[in-house]
Amino acid sequence: MEKRYDSKIIRNNVLSMIVPITFENILQMAAGVVSMAFVGRINAIAIGAIGISNILYRIAWALFKGLGVGSSAFVARNYGAQNNNKISSVTEQGIFVVAIMSILMQQILYWNSETLLSIFNSSQELLHSASIYLKIISWSLPFAALIQFTAGILQGMGDAKTPMIVVSVLNIVNIIFSFLLIFGNFGFPNLGLRGAGYAYNIAHVVSAALGLYFLLKTNKELKEGTEKQKIGFRKEELLSLAKYGIPTSLELSFYQIGAIFITRAILNYGETAYAAYQLGLQAESVSYMPATGLAIAATAFVGRSLGSNDKKLGKMYLDELFKMTIIITAFAGGALLLFPKLIMRALTDDLEVVAIGAVYLIVMGFSQMPQNLSGLYNGVLRGAGYPNAPLINTGLGIWGIRIPLIILISTYFHGNILWIWLSMALDLFFRFIFAYSSYKRKDVFSED
To answer: What is the mean pLDDT of residues 157-175?
Structure first.
């Protein structure tokens, strides 16, 4: 057997990819939990303000996250085919495209924050606080976009450690400055919610500078020994980036835009219920964030294998990733099922918030397996050059099942909030069935 087909080598390659991504995601989760715990000590309004601000922010963020994931799929296939010129070209052009688009989006968020937030139809106090926070964090968007693009390029080449370092710095700096600026510790001003926003911005500036340094260094190495090309916009590479990036951007945007309707529905049950949902999302990331690394690894390894026209190797990587997804989800999802109240109590002292959030975690605990497996198969489809399949999957699940059911339950039937959580779970089970069916239908690893 050739060395590359050795199961131990495949396992080690997978671990070298997913361990840094998992560590990165866990640290990101921990930073989010810590920051939310800091804000949770202010009041429920502050939690809600960050929650609804982040929904709008992440609609814009999703565009650049999609370009990052799309660039990862494109880079993986060309890296497998040893086409360094194309990777370098996309890197250089991508930096300019991301910079221009992100500055444009930042200005839209900043000058229209009050108007955009008014769609949530909540209390004036909550909307006012959210507007202040959204205006502040909007300035981080160009830096967040650069971080996402950097991670996509490097992960597509199989380098997960460098993005881990960049995001680790981001989260550590965010935690430190949140502690200093929210509460006014060590002589810093006590800024409360504003302090959380300023800390978020400082962290992104530092992290983006580090990411850009690594990206330019890698790009210089790619150019060594290849034919020099002038820096400029080349249609072929831009179209390739758009082919992979736009469907993924739309896919992520579907979820973020859908979050507006979900938020409006949950706010019908009161701001306490919404605070429980926000904290529940943070706690749920214990399960799905580690599995995100497996989906990214699937895109990278399958893309590289197919780029080098080695379908057998791609299938072996998928088999290894599938086993790891099952194991990780069994442990992490099990924690949500067994210790929901304990997890919620770590985030808040409000017993009513704990009770509502614990029910959410139990429902999501049952849904983690289909959610994480659908993410894995969507990663395979992107790596295989089918970015539209995950887009259709998410669109049908969010807009065909989740949103209609939630609107009916909250607005027309005024059902118990448990039915909102169950609607989300139904969507996740549907998306798993669709993702697996798409994978089988595309017959990614068939020998033609």
So the answer is: 93
